[in-house]
Design brief:
The protein is of the alpha/beta class and about 200 residues long. The protein has a single domain, classed as Rossmann fold, CATH 3.40.50. Helix content is about 25%, strand content about 30%. Strands 1-10-2-9-8-3-4-5-7-6 form a ten-stranded mixed sheet, sandwiched between helices. β6 and β7 form a beta hairpin. It is globular, with a radius of gyration of 18 Å.
C-alpha cells in the first residue's frame, strides 16, 4: 500500500504538500530510492546528502553520510565512544554538524534539497533539526527520508501541513519514483495548460 498524506502548504507558497517525506521499514530501500531520484533529476541543482552503511569483515560497523558531490564523513560507528548512542553505535554529532555546514542548502541556485535521513541519530543534533525546519519552511522543495517510528521531532515533522508523506514498501518500490517525479514536476501557473508536444499556436 502507498500511504499518502498531504495538506495545504505554508510559508506563503499555497502549494499542497510541496515537501515530500519518504518513510518505510529499515532496509526497504529508502536510500536507494534517494539515489535513483537524484539521478533522474540530474539537470536540477540539488543540494543534500544520503546515508550509507560502513561494512567491515562482512558485518555492519557503522554509518556514513555522503554529500551529493561526493564528500564522505562517518556518522556513527561501533568504535565511537560518543555519549550519543543508538544501539551499539556511537554518533558523531559534532562531525554531522560540521559536515552540514558545507552543503549548499541555502545557495540561491539550489532548487531542490534532499536529506537522507531524518532519523534518531541525526536528531541528536539541534542544528540538524533547525536545518530540517528551515528547509521545510523555505521556498525550495525538500525531499527527505524519515524514520517510520519515532516520537519527538520525527513525529512533529510528520504532522506538518506542508508535507506529503509516502510510505515505501517492497510492493510499491517500482511505482514510487515516477510518483515522486510527478509531484516535483513544475506546475503551470494560473491554470493555463502548456501546448501539447508538436502543437502550434492558434491562428
Amino acid at each position: 500500500m502507498m500511504a499518502l498524506r498531504g495538506n495545504s502548504g505554508c510559508g506563503g507558497t499555497g502549494m499542497k504538500g510541496r515537501n515530500i517525506l519518504i518513510t518505510g521499514i529499515p532496509g526497504v530501500g529508502k536510500t536507494t530510492f534517494v539515489k535513483s531520484l537524484c539521478a533522474a533529476l540530474a539537470p536540477r541543482r540539488i543540494a543534500g546528502f544520503y546515508t550509507g552503511e560502513i561494512r567491515e569483515g562482512g558485518g555492519r560497523k557503522g554509518f556514513e553520510i555522503v554529500s551529493l558531490d561526493g564528500v564522505t564523513r562517518i556518522l556513527a560507528h561501533v568504535d565511537n565512544k560518543s555519549p550519543y548512542r543508538v544501539g551499539r553505535y556511537g554518533v558523531d554529532v559534532h562531525g554531522l554538524e560540521y559536515f552540514l555546514r558545507w552543503i549548499p542548502f541555502h545557495d540561491a541556485h539550489t532548487d531542490l534539497a534532499v536529506i537522507d535521513e531524518v532519523g534518531k541519530m541525526e536528531c541528536f543534533s539541534r542544528p540538524f533539526r533547525n536545518l530540517v525546519t528551515k528547509m521545510l519552511e523555505s521556498s525550495v522543495p525538500l525531499v527527505a527520508t524519515i524514520a517510520l517510528r519515532g516520537g519527538g521531532f520525527i513525529a512533529e515533522v510528520k504532522m506538518r501541513k506542508d508535507i506529503t508523506l509516502l510510505e515505501l514498501t517492497r510492493a510499491n518500490r517500482d511505482d514510487m519514483l515516477p510518483k515522486v517525479l510527478a509531484l516535483l514536476a513544475p506546475k503551470p501557473r494560473g491554470g493555463v495548460l502548456p501546448h501539447p508536444p508538436g502543437g502550434g499556436s492558434r491562428s
